[in-house]
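Schema walk-through. Below, the input block comes first and the output block second. Nothing else is stored per chain. Lengths vary across the set, and this one has 396 residues.
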Amino acid sequence: MTEGTAPASPSSGRLPAGIWALGLVSMFMDISSEMIHGLLPVFLTAVMGASAEMIGLIEGIGEATASISKLFSGWISDKLKKRKALTIVGYGLSALSKPLFALAPNSSVVLGARFSDRVGKGIRGAPRDAMIGEMVPSRLRGAAYGLRQTLDTIGAFAGPLIAILLMAQLHDNFRLVFWLALIPGILAVLVLVFGVREPEHEAPPLQTPLRIADLKATGAAYWIVVGIGAVLTLARFSEAFLILRAQTAGLAPAWAPLVLVVMNIVYALSAYPLGALSDRVERKPLLVIGFAVLIAADIVLAVASDLTTVMVGVAMWGLHMGMTQGLLAALVADEAPQRLRATAFGVFNFISGLSLLLASLTAGMLWELVGPYATFIASAAFTALGLVGTAVLLRR
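--- output ---
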């Protein structure tokens, strides 16, 4: 018998232990990653003299790489029906990339470290998300993805908080903080290895290479979700620009991770309850509200003249993340055929990643050529396009 954690019983409203374990894995890895990510824009600009365009390039290439990796790992996962093994490889690679940030002598090596970290993220993403979809019945998927996102986001604000405390204790020693980020990364891999069991697979493994016919078989509704995710990602460039925006309003470099703390506290508090709500009401109208919140956040960030107002915009940005990311994952799981579920997540993330590359590069160029105002107004414009796409989805 295959190693398995049984899906939740249809008569049970409780999420299985495997969902909680995968959430803890995400939490520990996000602590590790955000200890670095919360300091990286300041490290690059203040220590290495990098420009906003270089930061956009590093972030864009990193996230695009993750998404390209998700495309192939999703198909491999469906072909082999080995979700957990690929997930372990992905988390392991991300953990091992952390020392590269500490050792980096210049921004080019930071780019390489970010590339390695995001390849790991790409390898693990699609098989992990498919595994979650197979652990629970469809009526619990919103809660399952929301819970994982909430625990992931708890790590995303705990990591920057830890970084702030360590910077204070270690006299702004960026590199030592980067070394210490390896510890929660190793914990994430250990919880995954010993705390998660892969569920039985009802569908047979894919027997042929990925074909255009397979992608067509996912259906029109799935591709509408992909399109909406891509447009939303065009509007949602790297959070590094939120940190830079706070700095323009007077935030001290040592407190830069506070931006991610504020954003992710709101994200964590909203992701699970809104995911659970989407199991009881129609998911798609909630996306419309999420897009509207992003437009409002962009306007606040564009016109803010003081740090308090910037932080209000950052909190609104976190709320929109909580309202959209888990819902999009649940919609992908709802619309994709079971035999192609990991592939469907891979394609979704691949296209979203290309959008993020374009978004981060565009954000960096607008920031350098025009200023922060143009960066956030452009985000609001792309979000408005996303609202049009959501309206099409609602009519189905």
